[in-house]
Design brief:
The chain is of the alpha/beta class and 443 residues long. The protein folds into four domains: 110 residues, Helicase, Ruva Protein, domain 3; 59 residues; 164 residues, 3-Layer(aba) Sandwich (Rossmann fold); 63 residues. It is 49% helix and 10% strand. It is built from 15 helices and twelve strands. Helix 1 runs antiparallel to helix 2. The longest helix has 38 residues. The two termini are 61 Å apart.
Length: 443
């Protein structure tokens, strides 16, 4: 099987999605799903990020030379007598201020470099959004329209659906693509540190603040700030975030200087924020500031036709890491994967595929069905799989009732085969297949 992927087209104003299609054949004579070509990936973004990181390293090196030179000049000049006097003291203060500013800029470059390196790692996880299902295409069509703007986006959806992936895709299609994409998991930061994480802090702002620190808003300057699990923000931080969205300015914790925020905000949550508003845990005014352009990522159970493509994609990634060669997917495995409801969505599917590739000892990919809880299989599929089992149970009961009536005798005018209306040879073959011991019915 070759791959199909949905990617954002080069023209952000395009009305439809560019679908990169190659042959997709599930009717293999062996009953499996053949794997021939691996998924075509686009490394341009990764190369761009690497180039940006190298540029930052060059700037940092040049800045170090400048700082070392200024420090050397400053230290040598401090010993000279002409530094006495108000004019020279003013120049020295200006020089010290310049050094401090350069130090701050170097710190910001260090953090941007770390951000870019993190971007390389994350880009390697998902180069493209995989799938051609109507549910996915409808959501991506809306994402394409908003990508070219600076509007705030609120992405909703169940856990594991790929909300951050959609946010990154929007950033890549925006005019801010050359600037950082900075993500923060609002649920993963302690309550008393989240404000400092978002807005930074001044030296001495609180116990442990031994130096000035830039926040995520400053690191994302000119780019995109992704607030994952925004519904977990504490009330006091919700107020501060609301102020930034309204005024496009913020202050570092412990500071008084207002800093301009040239940042596009994309937020995501798996919570029902309107329900959180009714319970008082989320501010309604912040909700409406975030809810400028809502996007809902469909769960995997609503895009089952994408599962073969995702399976191919994850197998390709995992086999490269594991150094294995898998040529096809068993038909039964594919049917199981498509019938499961995937409560953990794409993340759960990825984990199951990775685990299966590690344990796979042949070129045919298969999974252990025991890894998937039975309660998460669709009712429709359950009925299809359970019907043959029910028929076998009914057939076994009928044969045992006839054997009991005939006292275990199979042939003859008044025995089991005759009462069932089937040939003796047929009954003889059914008894062992149904795991019946006919001797226990004999008198």
């Amino acid at each position: 099987m070759a791959a199909q992927t949905v990617a954002f087209p080069d023209d952000p104003q395009a009305g439809d999605l560019e679908v990169v299609r190659q042959s997709f054949n599930t009717h293999d004579s062996s009953g499996g799903l053949p794997r021939g070509n691996t998924l075509r990936t686009n490394n341009l973004l990764s190369e761009s990020v690497h180039n940006n990181s190298e540029s930052i390293m060059d700037i940092r090196a040049a800045m170090k030379i400048v700082l070392d030179f200024i420090r050397a000049v400053k230290l040598s000049d401090l010993t000279r007598p002409f530094w006495d006097g108000a004019e020279h003291l003013e120049k020295r203060a200006a020089l010290e201020s310049a050094v401090a500013e350069l130090e701050l800029l170097r710190e910001q470059l260090d953090k941007e470099d770390l951000t870019l390196r993190d971007e390389v790692d994350r880009v390697s996880m998902f180069e493209e959004i995989v799938g051609t299902s109507p549910a996915l295409q409808a959501m991506l069509s809306r994402a394409i329209k908003v990508a070219a703007t600076d509007s705030t986006v609120l992405i909703t959806g169940e856990t594991g659906t790929g909300k951050e992936l959609v946010a990154r895709a929007i950033h890549r299609r925006s005019k801010r693509v050359s600037r950082p994409f900075v993500g923060v998991n609002c649920a993963g930061i302690p309550r008393d540190l989240i404000a400092s994480e978002l807005f930074g802090h001044e030296k001495g702002a609180f116990t442990g603040a031994t130096q000035q620190r830039l926040g995520r808003f400053e690191l994302a300057n000119g780019g995109t700030l992704f607030l994952d699990e925004v519904g977990e923000l504490p009330p006091e931080t919700q107020i501060a975030l609301l102020r930034v969205l309204q005024e496009h300015e913020f202050e570092r914790v412990g500071g008084t200087r207002r800093i301009r925020a040239d940042v596009r905000v994309i937020a995501a949550t798996n919570r029902n924020l309107q329900a959180a508003i009714s319970t008082g845990s989320f501010r309604s005014d912040l909700f409406y500031r975030l809810h400028v352009f809502p996007l809902e990522v469909p769960p995997l159970r609503e895009r089952r036709e994408d599962i073969p493509l995702l399976v191919e994609y994850f197998i390709d990634r995992c086999t490269q890491k594991a150094g294995k060669n898998i040529t096809r997917v068993s038909k039964k495995t594919l049917e199981v994967l498509q019938s499961y409801r995937w409560p953990g969505n794409i993340r759960e599917l990825q984990n199951v595929i990775e685990r299966s590739v590690i344990l796979c000892e042949t070129e045919i990919f298969s999974i252990d069905e025991n890894w998937l809880p039975r309660q998460f299989f669709s009712a429709e599929v359950k009925s299809h799989t359970e019907l043959p089992q029910r028929l076998l149970v009914q057939e076994k009961n009928m044969v045992e009732a006839s054997l009991k009536e005939s006292q275990g005798r199979v042939s003859g005018p008044t025995v089991a085969a005759a009462s069932l209306g089937i040939p003796r040879s047929t009954l003889e073959s059914k008894i062992p297949s149904l795991r019946i011991d006919k001797n226990r019915f004999k008198a």
